[in-house]
């Protein structure tokens, strides 16, 4: 009579596929740059309001807010990639 192959043979253990690349840490300059961008953007907007719209660059007017927000957004985007 033929023997059953069901329980006598062990199946190979499952090995998950390898990931393509491990997450590398950020360079040492990453954190100081995004913190500087966040602080600089905040200070730019605060100085604009406190100086009654004359500083940091009086000739561009309301675009000072745009410069401040671009600096802030640059800092926030960098924080999303921080490991």
UniProtKB/TrEMBL annotation:
Membrane topology of this protein: Multi-pass membrane protein
UniProt keyword list: Cell cycle, Cell division, Cell membrane, Membrane, Transmembrane, Transmembrane helix
GO BP, one annotated term: cell division
Segments of skewed composition (Basic and acidic residues): 1-11
Family matches, as InterPro entries: CrgA
Transmembrane helix among keywords: yes
Pfam families referenced in this protein's UniProt entry, alphabetically: CrgA
Keyword Cell membrane: yes
Superkingdom per UniProt: Bacteria
Region: Disordered, residue numbers: 1-24
Chief location bin: membrane
TM segment ranges: 29-50, 62-82
Gene Ontology, cellular component aspect: plasma membrane
Cellular location(s): Cell membrane
Family under the similarity heading: Belongs to the CrgA family.
HAMAP family: CrgA
Functional summary from the UniProt entry: Involved in cell division.
Name used for this protein in its record: Cell division protein CrgA
Organism whose genome encodes this protein: Terrabacter aerolatus
